[in-house]
Amino acid sequence: MNIKKAAELSGIKTDNIRYYERIGLIPKITRTESGIRNFTEANIRTLKFVKHMRDAGVQVEPLTRYMALVNEGNPETKEERIEILKNQVEQLRTEIIEKQSALDYLTFKIENYDEVMLPNEINLNQSSKETIKI
After folding, report:
1. Coiled-coil regions in this chain (predicted)?
2. What is the pLDDT of residue 129?
């Protein structure tokens, strides 16, 4: 099947599929004699897996390493693959904490708008009207 159909089935944009192939995140796709990519069901499964991992927050570089290890098929790399995933879990936890902090901050600003935001807005508006003398 062609790249358009592969994108439709996997939920990944065609440009991203090309990029993933170029950087080695997914294996090289076989091509027809005229050079058109010819995706197999196995390629679609790989694309779906990559999409799930990206949706889970796994970054491209570690995922590329992870996929390379998987494609090697060496059971001795199991611990390295697990370590990659653990590192990604920690990174995601950190990002969640940062996002929660930003959410709490904005929620506080909204809940206390008159006392917190309004005075600052007035100051911002006045300072933007002042001319700077050099």
Report:
1. 75-102
2. 60
Of residues 44, 41, 35, 40, the one with CA closest to residue 12: 44
Rounded Cα distance, 109 and 103, in Å: 10
Number of domains in the chain: 2
| Domain membership of residue 21 as a residue range | 1-55
- The pLDDT of residue 70: 94
Q: Is residue 19's pLDDT more than 70?
A: yes
Helix (H, G, I), strand (E, B) or coil at 37: strand
From the list 57, 59, 58, the residue with the least C-alpha distance to 99 is: 57
Q: What is the pLDDT of residue 123?
A: 78
Indicate if 44 and 69 belong to the same structural domain.
no
- H or E element, residue 106: helix 78-111
Q: Which three-class secondary structure state does DSSP give residue 119?
A: helix
